[in-house]
Amino acid sequence: MQQTSPHPLSSLKLFLAGLYSGEGRPGGRDTAQALIAAATEPSGPLPVDTPPQVALDALATDAHPGREVIERALPHIAWTDASGAMPGLKPDWASGMLVNELLGPSGQFHHPSVRVGLFVQMPGFHYGLRTHPAEETYILLGGGSFWATNGDAPARRHTGEIIFHPSMIPHQTLTRDAPFIAAWRWSGDIAYEGYAAVETA
Ligand SMILES: [Fe+2]
Q1: Tens-digit pLDDT profile for residues 159-179
Q2: Looking at the chain, which runs of residues are DSSP E strands?
Q3: pLDDT tens-digit map of 42-58
Q4: Does CATH number 2.60.120.10 belong to domain 47-197?
Q5: Cα-to-centroid distance, 195 and ligand 1 (Å)
Q6: Distance from the CA of 140 to the center of ligand 1, in angstroms?
Q7: Listed residue (81, 68, 49) closest to 8, CA to CA
Q8: Domain residue limits, the chain
Q9: Residues 147-168: b if buried by 16+ CB within 10 A, e if exposed
């Protein structure tokens, strides 16, 4: 009997499930279960496109052991119009990022109560302080990034690190020479309408 290899997006879902099952929070476990269930869904028509160079560049720096799984999935990733999805996003922020909702209410695959996907930030970009009701966990998959909550000084974080933001905590993300790529998840109140930029003096 001929064996067919799993679709690259199914492999990505299982890979992300493995990452989030190791997070050690109920939201991470819920996300992992949703990803595993979605990995067996029929794929239907999927985008096939040339991967953004910035995503490949991010994966090539401080590379994650799962880099090949991500690279194989990239041509099938749908990048969303972040400014359209999130009314609270500052107009000049959208050009500094690529956002994918792989699974969620408006994702490539539907799930009613979690959002999870990939995120890429361009080099030399300051994604400023913002808040949202959802709790959030980024898992760094490549590149270089600096993170801070509240008014703290941004600190360099590395591939493989888990960055957790409780509901409504102000957080910001900076890049210097390199871009970065991460997995992200939202749990709890996951409405995009709750997302807001924090006005700073
Ligand atoms: Fe966030």
Answers
A1: 999 999 999 999 999 999 999
A2: 97-99, 103-104, 109-110, 115-121, 126-131, 135-143, 145-149, 155-157, 162-165, 171-174, 180-187, 196-197
A3: 766 677 889 999 999 99
A4: yes
A5: 8
A6: 14
A7: 68
A8: 47-197
A9: beeeeeeeeebebeebbbbeee
